[in-house]
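Self-study notes.
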Amino acid sequence: MVWSALRDKSQLGRRWNFVHYTDRRMFDINPGRETMDVDKTVDEYYQQILKRNPGEPEFHQAAQEILSSLKYVLRKDDHYADEGLIQRLAEPERQIIFRVPWIDDQGNVQVNRGFRVQFNSVLGPYKGGLRFHPSVNLGIIKFLGFEQIFKNSLTGLPIGGGKGGSDFDPKGKSEHEVMRFCQSFMLELQRHIGEDIDVPAGDIGVGGREIGYLFGQYRRITGRHESGVLTGKGLTWGGSLVRTEATGYGVVYFMQEMMASNKERLHGAKVIVSGSGNVAIYAIEKAQELGATVVAFSDSSGYVSTPEGVDVELLKDVKEVRRGRVSDYASETDKATFHEKGNIWEVKADVALPCATQNELNGADARKLVENGVLAVAEGANMPTTEKATELFLEAGAPKGVLQVVHGGKEQVDQLLKHPQVKALSFFGSVAVGAVVLSVALAAGSVVCSAVVLGSAGSLGSLVPTVPVGATVPVGAVVGERLDRRPGVVGARGAPGAESHVSRRRRRRWGAGRACGLAPPVPRCSGERLCCCSFLGAPTAASG
């Protein structure tokens, strides 16, 4: 009846559309059910995945990361766990494994294994790349296909997730060997793909050459020229204008917006890009178009340092035309140095873009990046950052100038000031607590940026005039019971003690924290409870 009503707007009007979409629990068939224990439920889902998919660590890792993020969704609305939705999400609709025999140039029969894992077709055909690499196995293909669901959803297009490939290695193979393998591979794959069924693309080891052989064989077998069945083709035979550049450009655009939201600029930044395939090449191209300098890139043999930037046209010629190695690039220019088997993450830079393969950035690498002062990391590859590396990035905090809120007392403040990355301190709380914080900060020789006291319109300068102020941008906020009853005085950009009256409407909408420039709303504090805001990195040159 609800659906009929929605189709006939003349009967029920807009109000019923609003109710249907925003208050759907009124139609719940079991409104009296108990509240879900989210942590327990999600852990049970994950244990099922481990039991059903043994020996697949990459898939386990991807599932754990996705399920952990879904906890926040389920706490807000546990209806998303109804009808086995999450279990179905993590279980492929089809897992296809097949034999790929082919003959090498010496007349010997070689046998590889092919895969196609199709995850979700509820909105449209499966969509995802083919990877030819010796490391390929079922677990890797499943993790790639699982994450492809969410990548594709970001496009807003009606497509599902899928991934495929083989443990075949095209490196070192002749053109005829690659052709024979691709033809044998497609002999089986063609049963499972089609414009309205599954539309593969290229991935590691599958470029324009491989796509050409695959598509040619598909046409021979089916007798149809379905241009959409394989993406990544040349422009002269049904290819897209932007498909090759899409991922590399996208990760750089994303990084640019990330940095801008934290008052940083990609323009003028030093960037390291791992990899030298499609994603890496076009990430390098776009980063340098936007004013950054790419100081290093890599492949499996090592990395190339390029302090003055990358000659993109030369790199394209080496990798896309000649299918050479990054060492060939270094040998053809005086402005680059090749480091055989070197670790690209040791290069000092402001931005890191892992664009090669899964788990390429581990805990030790993350620690090195943090020590070298990297501001931001954006992932161009599929799951390139290990769990340990992610934890270290979170511990290190945000780029400079971004605030982290810490609740506690004297011990917490003492530990905070001892942290090697804390260059300055901003706090708000009661007068008594303020005195403690100031004493600890002065004893540690730390810089205090600003302070705001509950029940007072004072800043750092009015609280304790003798305290040295090292930052030119004080940050603070008036918090407490009176926040929603009178205009607050916020430490503004400028000299200590500067005041800015914030409207009641804006204060209610954003909270005191957003009114003074903090990204998250500042929580309320009362009594002897303290809120400490620590700068992770130097907010100004003066406070370093």
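Second protein, same conventions, sequence then structure:
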Amino acid sequence: MFPDGWRRRTLEALDDPFDLIIIGGGITGCGILLDAAQRGLRPLLVEKGDFASGTSSRSSKLIHGGLRYLKEMQFRVTKMACQERDRMLALNPLLVRPVRFLYPASHGDRVPGWTVDLGLWMYDRLTHRSDKHAHLERGEVEDLAPGLDTERLDRAMIYTDALTDDAQLTLAVAATGCAYGGRALTRTQVVEALRGATGRVQGVVVRDLESGETHHIAAHLVINATGVWVDEMREVLGFDSPRLRPSRGSHLILSSSRLPLNAALTVPSPEDGRPVFLIPHPEGVLVGTTDIFHEGGLDDPRVTHTEMMYLLETLQSHFPEKGFSEEDIVASFAGLRPILGTHTDNPSEASREEELWEEDGVLSIAGGKLTTWRAMAEEAVDEALMLLPEEVAAAAEPCYTAGTPLLGLAPSDLAQRLTQLGPDIDASVAEGMARRLRSMAWWAVRGIREDTDLHPLMSGTDLCAAEVRAHLAFGGVLHLEDLLLRRVRLGLWSPELAKEMSGRLRPLFEEIKGWDHDRWQAEEEALEGALESWSPQGVVKA
């Protein structure tokens, strides 16, 4: 992935001009890095935080066509998303897995069941997969979702979409891009544009947030792929006229024991009929999302009390006997969607189409979905080739990301095979390592120093020392929060457990990273601040 010295070697390579400088280490920027590197270009990605530290770690984790987009007649987006979903399922089965969704339609719903049925029929037409939607009997519904209110059930439909870990997907795309010759720098902030005699942007000035040093980096073209920060970055580079209107999507996390589900659910909100997802993961149940135009700062979006109650009331209306309350919330988080300026007051009706535009040597891209990252990247690099010097563009290869598996390809039965390599490895630990490390799990298990390296570091988790060593050695981890929030995601699923876990990790960071007492204290303080965004205590009361 990112072996020892990767950052130092990239810093040493900054004196030579690049073909592309890509600003933004979310899924869009990392996708462009991969596409450009595969075509033989010389790309550099810079990101002010960690990979996936913005929206790309704060989504609903869905790889889906966007059933609700059909209602808004967004057929192109839905068709593209279905195609990309099916492609990822085929190429990256350990990163993207199919999941069954139950949609229980009741008499009196704002959206009648027959319209949902029609939408699913159209959804089926947009995919070549054989698992089309079907109808279920009441007893089957109750088996899949114990406690679900079925008294007013009109019809129940089941369909298939896909799930991923958004941060893991982004990291895999970034690592694959670097494996093909691209370069990437995290914790590196763009502070100024470099302009030529004509005023055209010919590179950027960056500040290394780890060392404080500044670097002047030349490039034929700069691509602004900063998501909801596109306008802020355009301002840094010398442009105005805002183009985006961010939308906020908020989520709650419940324990699996509190809401045991044998399938994911799509249920309508009693307030406005919007679909809300209830998605079981190995670590807990994700409940979301909202869709509200966001006002204020972009760096630390928070769930509001109003959004929390919206999601809780949806749960209460469909599971009335379970008595859900604020005390059931284990974690919460909000992410921002880069929605292009819209004339509607309802963000759910706004287009999810991506858009590209060029301004004096800067190509900006915004919009789109997690699911369509590969297609968006292909479109961006196609556009970039028309703006690059003729000799550079002529030497570029065609795009072939549509058939390229991401780095870390491993057999689907990897967890079972790991238990054969290490007889003392717990099944849950093996499953966690396979899910998060993929092929790197081989190295982790074979490189153990003592038997306890394969035991959970603490009860309630499947994280072991062998996995942590792998992330620290090859995962591009620069800070404690990088590990706990985006490599193993413990901070997402249980902020309290993440705080407790941090103390168990200190010896490993001291051994591998060489951190002293002062550095560790600073990292723990930074982690505590970061975890507030993911904690129920971080909900904004106003």
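Instructor comment on the second fold: The chain has three domains: 6-55+167-245+351-403, 74-163+247-341, 414-538.
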